[in-house]
Amino acid sequence: MNSDPVADDNSALQLASRDGLWLVVDRLLQHPHVNPAADDNAAILLASRAGHLPVVDRLLQHPRVDPSGDDFGSAAICWASRCGHVAVVDRLLQDPRVSPAGDGDSPLCWASKGGHLDVVIRLLQDPRVDPAAGCNYALRRACGAGHLAVVDWLLQDPRVDPGDAGSGNPAICCASRCGHLSVVDRLLQDSRVDPSVNENAAIRLASSFGRPNVVVRLLACRRVLLAALPQVISRALVVDGDVLRTALRRDSLLRRAHLAMAVARRRRGPG
Q1: CA distance 78 to 94
Q2: Beta carbons within 8 Å of 114's beta carbon, 6+ residues apart
Q3: Are the C-beta atoms of residues 142 and 154 closer than 8 Å to each other?
């Protein structure tokens, strides 16, 4: 092994940072030729990703270290948020060089996608973080991943609009496509959510991706346009006929719609 601490672009410091060896990091930082900012500040990025708070704290105190790490000013905090290290996120937020709003609020989006509620809560305490950025991208990522606790917390923020369809892929569609029934239920409790948005995209996605329980839940919602039922019911029967038949027995509106479509098909004849 090479004993030179600056060999291989200061790899010794980077490995020690990655592994949380803060005493080794302390010793290496005393070497006059060790560059803690080498390889685009890889040392603090690795320490942030691994959640090693003592190492992150020591690196932040070095004048050559730049915790922003990229043009958006959020690389280290992105890794900490993505991996759910709330203590590291909190420490990085205390550094004025770190911007949690960089790259479309990606730290919040990464934390939301990962289901790291404690990180989401901490980020939302920072006034620079806009949870509605990117057409409510953080909420849509949480819905797509099925993290109900994160979805519920985001919905309590008045800046978040779960009915925003500006992206073409609103929150209800993200949850429906991925089959997260509990998230769909939670969204339907919000009056701002229209499950028939974009020509019933939510129910069409749930049907196409084989999510029969979500299909049935959406069919029971009176706001869903009946015009979408013929295609959806035929697909859902293929996916899971028993689930749909149970719903038809329980819901008079669905029974009437299903009967009307059966009559219409008989009138049209085969083909």
Answers
A1: 15
A2: 81, 82, 83, 84, 145, 147
A3: yes
49-96 pLDDT per residue, tens: 999 999 999 999 999 999 986 655 568 999 999 999 999 999 999 999
Residue type, 83: C
What's the token pair of residue 109? 């989006």
The Cα–Cα gap between 149 and 146 comes to 9
Return the ∠ at Cα 142 (arms to 199 and 212), rounded to 5°.
50
CB 257 within 8 Å of CB 229:
yes
Nearest CA among 140, 97, 147 for reference residue 119: 147
The alpha carbon dihedral of 125, 50, 134, 146 has a sign of negative
Non-local (6+) Cβ contacts of 173 within 8 A are 197, 198, 201, 202, 205
Model's pTM, two decimal places? 0.82
Phi first, then psi: give them for residue 91, nearest 5 degrees: -65, -40
CA–CA distance, 268 with 265 (Å, rounded to integer) = 5
